[in-house]
Amino acid sequence: MNISEIKAKSMKKIEKTAEVLKDALPYTTKDGKYDDMTNKMSHWWTNSFWSGILWEMYGQTGDITYADYAIGCEKKLEKVLCGYTRDDHDLGFLWLLSGVEHFERFKHFGAERAKNDALLAASVLASRYDLKAKVIRAWNGDGGKGLAIIDCMMNLPLLYWASKQEDDTRFKKIAMSHADSVIKNFVRENGSVCHIVKFDTETGERLEDFGGQGYKQGSSWTRGQSWAIYGFVQSYQWTKEARYLETAKKVADYFIAEAKKNDYKIKCDFCQPEDDDLYDSSAAAIAACGMIEIYKETGDKKYLEEAEKLILADSENFSPWDDENDMALVNFGSESFTKHEHLALIYGDYYFFHAVCGLDEILNK
After folding, report:
1. pLDDT digit string (tens) for 4-63?
2. 96 burial level (CB within 10 Å; 0-12, 13-18, 19+)
3. Are residues 138 and 92 in contact, defined by beta-carbon separation less than 8 angstroms?
4. Strand-strand pairing, 206-210 and 33-34
5. pLDDT-derived band of residue 108, with 50, 70 and 90 as boundaries?
6. Domains in the chain, start-ordered, CATH in brackets?
7. Given CA atoms 143, 149, 155, 157 in this order, what sign does their dihedral have?
8. pLDDT tens digits, one per residue of 308-317
9. Partner of 281 for a Cys bridge, out of 117, 204, 235, 318, CB 3.0 to 4.6 A?
10. SS3 at position 191
11. Contact 150, 102 (CB under 8 A)
């Protein structure tokens, strides 16, 4: 199956799923049916990814129904935007694929409320910046003191966007300071990255790192590698600072070398035991998205070709194309190594579809 065929199958499945989910906030499936986090955990970090899929479908089809559903998701997120104790570093995930998408697609038609909410989210995200550690704090409470995680690279575009909207460099400076600290404290010589790093909030000193959702301390959680690839290339696109592109390429080259060892079927952690078959299809999809952007910035076809291989491997091994009752585009995602279970993940579906659409646009110009 080629990319165009995968795109057609994906869109057909999403069209059918949208008729059921409408403006739900799904996370994972049970018996092939996506759940709805609206009344369970309305603040959860993944609650914008379905709206991201809907906006992608709107862009592909022009069908306003998808936009209406996406805006419905956004309104649900708006209700928890000011829940200070639950807002954390993932405000970027939540508002880039809801309010920012809404405003950018309809800004000529007065989508000012979406812009306002996204700017408010950016302001709260910026307030989490630690002046000593020079990173954006991840979680709240005593247990989150001094902790930053690689995932936050994906939240920085909300700050870059806010800087552009307000013609105010404060947001951009915070984002760049965080990115620079990640290069210094998370990225290893071989191109792999840590998941969690703890800093002394009084001195800014790096204290230790943790395995987090990976196999163990010092290992290589694959979704973390993917966040770094995609996050750093986006920082380059917003700033044109070469160190960010070089870091994205460094991590991508490491990821590619490891992916080849298992025919592009990406496990949860590149360091997990060889006989442990815990995969993470979402890591492959996210990495593919990042590599597509690296190709756009460098013209190096290696990254485009590797992105295509990752998506084809996900599709061939993990997509339930033959099951019309399964809403997921890809199964065999994993939340963490410690949970050690496979499941569909809405963000896996989003990045898979986003990569497929990006590849199709490039390959079929």
Report:
1. 999 999 999 999 999 999 999 999 999 999 999 999 998 899 999 999 999 999 999 999
2. buried
3. no
4. unpaired
5. low
6. 3-363 (1.50.10.10)
7. positive
8. 999 999 999 9
9. 318
10. coil
11. no
Q: Quick one: CA dihedral 260, 261, 264, 270, positive or negative?
A: negative
pLDDT at 78 over 80: yes
Q: Retrieve residue 129's tokens.
A: 């910046």
Cα separation, 26 vs 33, whole angstroms: 10
264: left (phi over 0), alpha (psi -120 to 50) or beta: left
Token digits of residue 50: 């379905």
Distance CA 329, CA 351 (A): 10
Report residue 223 as tokens.
């979704």
Question: Can you list the alpha helix ranges (DSSP code H) found in the chain?
Answer: 3-21, 49-61, 64-78, 91-95, 101-106, 112-126, 156-166, 169-185, 222-239, 242-260, 281-298, 301-318, 346-363
Query: Which pTM value belongs to this model?
Result: 0.97
